[in-house]
């Protein structure tokens, strides 16, 4: 994660104040977007979201020397009291590890740094000297002890919360805006999307695509639905002749084989969706069956572009009537291809051009996600 910047509202040339309003701004080498059903609440909503992002960055970014998570290294294995927010973020990361049988492991900070991912991806040189890629298991999430706010972190363990912190923060932000401001809201952090409160007429719509130049899809989201995508295409860097990406297999501490270029999952929370999509990348060929067992609607795209859908994800030919004047809410990801998602009850339609959003907002940039 990188330091946040204060948002500037996106232009909303819309004379009908009953339609949603949106603001977007750069954060964590991606884009944050907040869309509210009550335009009068937009300024307050974006301030709430920006404040939450700044708070998370201050405690959980392993790229900031002053971040609380980095200061844990000095403890050298001694139990430490951590802040309530960091305890919450570590707690959900450990829960995700437990839920996935270790496929999502927060103890990969050291191995990621060893592979060259030791700073924000925007500051990471595209190329660099070769690195020695050593096959070894992750230090192991079971070795991390968290009791309330008391954390015991072994001296050889560096945490990386990237697989869960951003998605959990999207959930936190959406719930906070809906509760405090009484408006329906969609929050997208690099394409990790959470919704809360009443949706706009016709529901939320998200325009997404898998690769630049491919037809875009418009996805309708039922109220309370969340989406997340994990990918082997984004956050990549080269060391010597090796092209590396940030989703490591905890069994080897190496980038997971690119069986799937993207996996998108719909769930009741963004955290649950991103936990499942990250685990699917790591599980490789076993991912579709695992997602079916969990009953999660998902869309997996393999290295050749073949699409596999599970648990009720509709075929592109299954079209229902489009929602009336529903907005398309998106968040761009600068360094990677983009992807699409749908959950049971959603509709998916294919658009052949980059049209204006149905809400009257400017044509959105394409949705993406870093995890």
Automatic annotation (TrEMBL):
InterPro entries: ApbE, ApbE-like_sf. Its EC number is 2.7.1.180. One of its GO terms (molecular function) is transferase activity. It is an enzyme of class 2 (transferase). Its cofactor is Mg(2+). Residues 1-24, 313-371 are annotated as: Disordered. Residues 1-11, 321-338 have a biased composition (Low complexity). This is FAD:protein FMN transferase.
């Amino acid at each position: 994660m990188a330091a946040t910047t204060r948002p500037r509202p996106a232009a909303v040339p819309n004379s009908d104040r009953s339609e949603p309003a949106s603001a977007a701004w750069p954060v964590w080498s991606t884009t944050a977007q907040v869309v509210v059903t009550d335009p009068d609440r937009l300024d307050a909503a974006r301030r709430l979201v920006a404040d939450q992002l700044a708070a998370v960055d201050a405690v959980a970014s392993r790229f900031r020397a002053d971040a609380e998570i980095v200061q844990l290294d000095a403890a050298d294995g001694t139990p430490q009291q951590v802040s309530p927010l960091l305890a919450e973020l570590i707690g959900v990361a450990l829960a995700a590890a437990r839920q996935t049988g270790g496929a999502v492991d927060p103890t990969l900070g050291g191995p990621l740094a060893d592979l060259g991912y030791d700073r924000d991806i925007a500051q990471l040189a595209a190329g660099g000297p070769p690195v020695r890629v050593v096959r070894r298991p992750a230090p192991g999430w079971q070795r991390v002890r968290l009791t309330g706010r008391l954390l015991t972190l072994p001296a050889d363990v560096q945490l990386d919360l990237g697989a869960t912190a951003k998605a959990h923060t999207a959930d936190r932000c959406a719930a906070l805006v809906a509760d405090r401001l009484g408006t329906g809201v969609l929050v997208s952090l690099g394409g990790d999307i959470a919704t809360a409160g009443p949706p706009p007429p016709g529901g939320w719509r998200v325009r997404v695509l898998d690769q630049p130049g491919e037809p875009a899809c418009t996805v309708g989201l039922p109220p309370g639905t969340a989406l997340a995508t994990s990918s082997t295409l984004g956050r990549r860097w080269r060391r010597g002749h090796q092209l590396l990406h940030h989703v490591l297999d905890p069994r080897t501490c190496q980038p997971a084989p690119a069986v799937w270029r993207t996996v998108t999952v719909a769930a009741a929370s963004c955290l649950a969706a991103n936990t499942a999509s990250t685990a699917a990348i790591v599980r490789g060929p076993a991912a579709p069956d695992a997602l079916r067992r969990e009953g999660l609607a998902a869309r997996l795209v393999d290295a050749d572009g073949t699409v596999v859908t599970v648990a009720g994800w509709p075929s592109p030919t299954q079209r229902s009537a489009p929602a009336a004047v529903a907005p398309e809410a998106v968040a761009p990801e600068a360094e990677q291809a983009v992807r699409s998602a749908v959950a049971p009850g959603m509709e998916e339609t294919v658009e052949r051009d980059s049209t204006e959003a149905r809400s009257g907002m400017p044509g959105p940039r394409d949705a993406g996600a870093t995890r």
